[in-house]
Amino acid sequence: MTIKVRYFASLKEMLGRGADEVDATDIMTAGGVWHSANPNRPLPENTLIAVNMTYVTLHAHVKDGDEVAFFPPVTGG
Fold first, then answer.
1. pTM for this one?
2. DSSP per-residue letters across 20-69
3. What domains can be seen in the chain, in order of their start residue?
């Protein structure tokens, strides 16, 4: 059972990778996905999270086969 994880923009640069796959056996939330893929890094403040291309909170439930994306807030001018 796996969850696909994607990182965008500055998160991708910070982590040095654009994607991961994590074992979904013990993960139940989007926040848990981050901590499973990045156990020694706290989730940066204001990070946006999407599960299957829908914005969610850290506490959103995830399941096998989901895609969870993390990206910094978008600013424009």
1. 0.91
2. EEEE-TT--BHHHHHHHH-TTSPPPTT-EEEETTEEE-TT-B--TT-EEE
3. 2-71 (3.10.20.30)
